[in-house]
Every structure is written in C-alpha cells, then in structure tokens.
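Hi support team,

I've been running sequence recovery on a batch of backbones for a student project. Most finish fine, but this one hangs at about 90% for roughly twenty minutes before it completes. I'm not sure whether the input is malformed or the queue is just slow. I've pasted the structure tokens below so you can try to reproduce it. Let me know if you need the job ID as well.

Thanks,
M.K.
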C-alpha cells in the first residue's frame, strides 16, 4: 500500500503528526510519501511560510497594544468555527491532483483543515480515485463542523461528538487521539536523561513558545530569574535566534546560573521528560506530547492564537492552569509546592486525553480504509 501524507511548510505540530504516522506505516512495510501541499508551487509556499512567520512575529506586539481588549475578542471568538480561505482550497485541489498523477497513492492523509476540505470536494466530484482521511489537529471538537464531513479522525470523543452527529449529519468519524512519535513513549530513565543533557537534580521548569518561539522571551527570562532562584529553568526559543542571543548575553552579564537557554531542538521529548512542569502554547501536538509524558502542563492564556479553543477545552476539564505573565508562573509553582495533590489530579486529567498510541490507531484505520 502507498500512502500520501500532506502537510505544510510551517506548523511544527502538524509536521510532527504526519511524521508520527509515517513512522508507524513505514515500520509496517508500507510505502509512504510525506509531502508539503505547496512544494511544487514555490511562490505559494514562500507566501505561506513567510506570511505565517511575519504574522506570528507581529502578534505579540499587537497583544501588548490590545491587551485591554482581550476580553472583548475572547467573548466573540469562543466557540466560533474556523473560516477557511477559498484560495487555499483552490490551490490544494490543484496540488492534490498533481500528487495523484505523480504518486498514485492508495490513501491520502492530512492534519491540515483546508487540505481535507479540498479532498472532500474532489471525492464528491469523482476526481479522487483513492480514499482519504483528515485528522482534526485540535481537542476542541466543534472545529470538525466545518471540516471534512465524511472521513474525519478526531482527537477526542465526548459530548461534542454526539451533538455533531445530530446537527451536521456527520458519518465515518473515528476517535484516534492525536499521534505522537514513538520517541515520546520509549524514553530512558529520567536520571539518565538528566546526566545526558546536563540538567541538575531538583525541580525544573520547561518554558516553550512554539516552533517559531515568538514573544518577549528575554522579558520572561528576566522576570523569572528574579523570582525562581530555587529551581532550574529550561527555556526553548525555537527558531527565534534573535531572542536566544539576547538571553545568552543577559545570562552572561547577570551571572544567572539556573537557566538552560536553547534554540530550536529536535529532542523535545527529552527536555520534557526531565522537567516537572511545562509552560507552553496550547497546540494540539504540544498538549498531546505533555499528556503522553504524564507531565504537568501550564498553558499560555493567549486569546489571539488559534490554540484558544484548545485552552478552553482543557480549562473546562480542569486539565491545565492558564497564565499570561511571568509572575503568574511563579504563583502557579508556589501552589504546586503548597498543594501537590491538586496538581496531581490536574496532571491525571491531562494524561487521560492521550495515551501515546494515536499513531498506531490512525495506521490501523488507514490500512482498513485503503
């Protein structure tokens, strides 16, 4: 069987989801082609990559200016359905047909919403000879209401799924969980990893801000190092080389010794495994990885990012604590020391969302549907 996996140039979580499925299918002896939907259209891919990069870099500055209006935006965004650009669907249709001609796959899988919609349109028109599936890449179930309605894989199954069946006449839905790589479920002991990475014993807090790492990272480190002197801080800047360099200069100048400052890493599972608490964006992949590693997860309460609905989903289930500023992280850690039982319950609720075997279930379904 040959499987075509479609993703984007940007969106680290989506790329990792495809990589996890590819890993399992390849191990089972299937031929897999992992492709970027716009890889044959350099101009579109450049726009997609650079446009996303510029938008993500601008958003933190807009947040500073518009923080007082956060409640207004949040109240209007909660529970809304995503709007997909017609141009993306149009370009995706053309790209899919080109891939079909070149690769002739038996099954197409994607975690990209507008690519799933393009696949659905082509299937209904009779232009797609193979089967396909779209993974909803988030935990907030109503996102599926405007997605692919005939071959969707879901991250969770709760009361929202039942409501969708009634309201949207959805069929062929399966609950798989968001896939995480085998590296997250097959790790050496914590102490062995600490020695490998040079992480000291004691409590360690991991702070991330997505693959691009945009935000006021230096301000975060400055504020945290003034308050958190009794624990280790692991700060991952992602691809934000500018902020990493500024933090390196600050650490050298100030003499602070309890911070490990990193750029983009490809062994995130190891840094997560040696940490006691993780602070990060509420992306579907990040949440799933934290759940698979049985980690305490503290989420950025950022209403302008697409992860807002994921945050609402976790908060409704008491599976995370939301923070906006460094001082709030300090207060959360103080509560962690004072009431460890409540954090243990929160960690267990998050862990229940993902058992680390989503990739295997997706591979099973792909084999059965192809």
């Amino acid at each position: 069987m040959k499987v075509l996996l479609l993703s984007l140039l940007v969106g680290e979580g989506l790329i990792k989801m495809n990589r996890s499925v590819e890993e399992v299918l390849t191990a089972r002896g299937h031929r897999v082609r992992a492709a970027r939907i716009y890889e044959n259209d350099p101009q579109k891919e450049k726009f997609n990559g650079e446009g996303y990069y510029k938008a993500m870099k601008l958003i933190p500055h807009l947040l500073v200016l518009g923080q007082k209006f956060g409640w207004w935006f949040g109240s209007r965004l909660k529970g809304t359905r995503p709007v997909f650009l017609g141009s993306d669907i149009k370009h995706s249709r053309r790209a899919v047909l080109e891939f079909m001609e070149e690769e002739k796959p038996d099954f197409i899988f994607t975690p990209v919403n507008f690519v799933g919609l393009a696949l659905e349109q082509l299937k209904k028109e009779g232009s797609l000879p193979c089967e396909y599936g779209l993974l909803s890449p988030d935990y907030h179930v109503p996102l599926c209401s405007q997605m692919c309605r005939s071959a969707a894989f879901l991250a969770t199954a709760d009361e929202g799924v039942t409501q969708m069946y009634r309201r949207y006449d959805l069929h062929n839905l399966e609950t798989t969980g968001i896939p995480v790589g085998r590296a997250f479920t097959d790790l050496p002991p914590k102490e062995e990893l600490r020695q490998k990475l040079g992480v000291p014993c004691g409590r360690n807090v991991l702070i991330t801000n997505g693959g691009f790492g945009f935000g006021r990272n230096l301000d975060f480190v400055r504020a945290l190092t003034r308050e958190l002197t009794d624990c280790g801080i692991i700060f991952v800047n992602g691809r934000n080389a500018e902020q990493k360099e500024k933090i390196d200069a600050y650490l050298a100048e100030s003499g602070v010794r309890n911070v490990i400052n990193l750029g983009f890493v490809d062994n995130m599972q190891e840094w997560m495994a040696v940490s006691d608490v993780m602070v990060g964006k509420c992306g579907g992949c990040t949440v799933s990885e934290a759940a698979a590693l049985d980690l305490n997860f503290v989420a950025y309460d950022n209403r302008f990012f697409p992860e807002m609905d994921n945050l609402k989903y976790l908060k409704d289930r008491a599976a995370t604590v939301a923070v906006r500023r460094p001082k709030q992280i300090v207060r959360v850690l103080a509560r962690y020391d004072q009431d460890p039982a409540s954090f243990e319950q929160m960690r267990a609720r998050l862990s229940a969302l993902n058992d680390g075997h989503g990739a295997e279930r997706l591979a099973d379904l792909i084999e059965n549907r192809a």
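--
Follow-up from support: It reproduced on our side and the slowdown came from queue contention, not your input. Residues 204 and 232 are 4 Å apart (CA to CA). No action needed from you.
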